[in-house]
Amino acid sequence: MLNYAVAGLNPPAFHLVNLLLHLLAVYLIFLIIKKVSKDDLAAIIASVLYLVHPLHVEAVTYIAGRADPLFATFFLLALYLYMRYRENCRISYLCFSALSFIFAIISKEIAIMLPVIIIFYDYTFREGKEAGGKAVSRYIPYISIAAVYIALRTSVLNFKAPVAIMPKGIGLYERTLTFFGAFFEYAKLIVLPFDLHMERRIPFAKSLLQPEVLFCAVFVILVAAIMVLAHKRSKLVFFGLGWFFITIFPLSGIPMAMNAVVSEHFMYLPLIGIVLIAASGIRQAGRYAVLLLLPLVIYFSLITVKQNTVWRDEITFFEHSLKYQPNNPKLHLNFGNTYSEYNMLDDALKEYNTAIQLEPDYAPAYNNIGQIYLKRGEVEEAIKMYNKAISIEDNYADAYFNLGNAYEIKSMPVEALTE
Fold first, then answer.
1. In whole angstroms, what is the distance from residue 372 CA to residue 216 CA?
2. 329, 365 contact by CB (below 8 A)
3. Of 70, 50, 63, 69, nearest to 301 (Cα)?
4. HSE-up of 343 (CA within 13 Å, CB side)?
5. What are the tens digits of pLDDT across the range 98-129?
């Protein structure tokens, strides 16, 4: 709202704010890693790798992806202020940390994992050991905020997230198995961020005995084993992997069903743990660290610059996405909507028809074809399409509204009023 109040519907202004939020998040990452590693160079390496990584294009370049850099900024600020509080016990740091946590949750619900991260941070680095009661007391503000939010979220406010539509037979067991595949997919994308696109899909797993599922499960177990072994040998590796597991969990599909099993922007917060590990490894090269860092920065930067061109305009975006998901009816529908906005009606009609071929009972496609016919003045054909959409979804408000408009154009006021 503030962005709109200052700059109106000016896309560059929204892009600028997204970029500034990303830069602020990177700076906070630098401060946090500097504290946990006590190494300026390691903090710089981690921050630079995070800054240029291609997986962040979806969260930063996509204007509607602002929730990720916004919540992450407040999340990281809350954690950093808590670290400062642990150093000098100034209550003001704790108060502002808790306030930042509130803003983080308001920005995006997965920020509710902050208390877990804070406890994990204390456990890993064991700074300032106190008696049990005093140790627990410093967590009370965060746990209280989380508890109040959950209570409001499930009662007074009573707003519900979009219900994920799961295929028949997909429950907690299948979602857990599928997460193993998602975990491996993320690992590949972190190291080899190629073929990036917004409609990434992986099939739901049905059995642990499926070879690909078993392979991914073993991979996750190996990573978890490395984390356990690192507990005594490398606090940074232990903390980095723990950070990844904790922050990816609410997005894993395990605690609740989600429409997206894998999404590039889901990595915005978890990737911090990985760049911490990478930085600690590169740092071991001593004076040759820059020689290891530079190729990585160039490699990631080139991919990031190329990926940004995909978001140049709507047509380019949909053409790119359809290269990877040609059988996605929703993509064809939205591509048709884009063509319609540009008044490229023949192209729009082609995309809507493709959507129907892929999903014959796709009511929105019929409704939008009706809109095309109405623009062309073919009112009778438009009415047929609206009625077809209504026959598929009898509570489709937009189709009823459009049908009423079509009747009004035909000077049929009684029918128009009925719709």
1. 46
2. yes
3. 50
4. 2
5. 999 999 999 999 999 999 999 999 999 975 55
